[in-house]
Amino acid sequence: MDRRSFLSAALLGAAGLAGTAFATRTALAQTADPAKLRVALLPDENASTLIQNAQPLKVYLEGRLKKDIELVVTTDYSSMIEAMRFGRIEVAYFGPLSYVLAKQRAPGIEPFAVGVSKGSPTYKAVVIAKADAGVKSIADIRGKMVGYGDAASTSSHLIPRALLARNGLVGERDYKFVHLGAHDAVARAVQAGQVQAGGLSQEIFAALVARGTIDGARVTVLAESDPIPNYPMVMQGTLAPALKDAIRAAFLELKDPAILKTFRAEGFAATDDRAYDILRDTAQVLNLDLSKVKG
């Protein structure tokens, strides 16, 4: 064999080995069955509070799945999306828009369950205002400062912003806005008069008032949105099929009210990616390029 033939054979052999190694890694990735599952909760309130309140969930999942469970609360929606993208978490409770953004970056992830509240797999956003700030209607927001949550939030950004747009108020043209992070930060900022109006989840707002975090007499609801598909549970598509079935069943069969309280839900129903097309359509109405939304 001459030198050229030898090199060709060697390169072909190396390519074959590389192909075999890639195929092996791919096969292993599609049957991942880790001893520990990292389960991320949506960072829409204080992280330590979320972790503490979710301890019954940890115990339940460890019993059902026979695996160690690590509860995770990332610093914001963006870091949660990136953690899912790069396989640093296996299961996550996403907001609808943050799920859509995550799906763009990690097409293999799979939504499998959606929270059900008041018998429906939907929820609403509200636009609130400080009661004595002279903002009595959506029209009064013109020229004011509005507080939104995370840029990747559905009910604390995308939907309230669309609601204002449908009422003729376009952000940065008709009013100024600022992103404040979590839903509770928006409510606090409105109550304190730091912003004159704000958008957040109706259920989170009601919970903040019920806990006394927000004084219901000092903050008024100006409008509520149409129904939004509820928060999905999402898992890595590379998990072993048997594990995915077990995770899916654990959530769809979850009945304990103490655990479901973590999700502000009465239970879970099955879902898929198509249920969230409405978020993609809403972004188009706002001329919002989702690829440029921080997340």
What this model shows, in words?
The protein is an alpha/beta fold and 295 residues long. Helices cover 41% and strands 19% of the residues. A six-stranded mixed sheet has the order 2-1-3-12-4-13, with helices on both faces. A five-stranded mixed sheet has the order 8-7-9-6-10. It has a two-stranded antiparallel ribbon with strand order 5-11. The N terminus is likely disordered.
What is the CATH topology of the largest domain? D-Maltodextrin-Binding Protein, domain 2
Number of helices: 11
- Beta-strand percentage range: 15-25%
What is the rounded distance between the termini? 56 Å
CATH architecture call of the largest domain: 3-Layer(aba) Sandwich
Query: Would you identify the regions where 5 or more consecutive residues have pLDDT less than 50?
Result: 1-29
* Largest sheet: spatial strand order: 2-1-3-12-4-13
Largest sheet, strands/sense/barrel:
6 strands, mixed
Overall CATH class of the largest domain: Alpha Beta
Helices and strands: which structural class? alpha/beta
Helix content: 40-55%
Give the topology string: H per helix, E per strand: HEHHEHEHEEEEHEHEHEEEHHEH
Shape: globular
Short account of what is shown:
The chain is α/β, with parallel strands linked by helices and 295 residues long.
Descriptive key words:
295 residues, D-Maltodextrin-Binding Protein, domain 2, 6-stranded mixed sheet, 11 helices, 19% strand, signal, Phosphate/phosphite/phosphonate ABC transporter substrate-binding protein, PhnD, TAT_signal
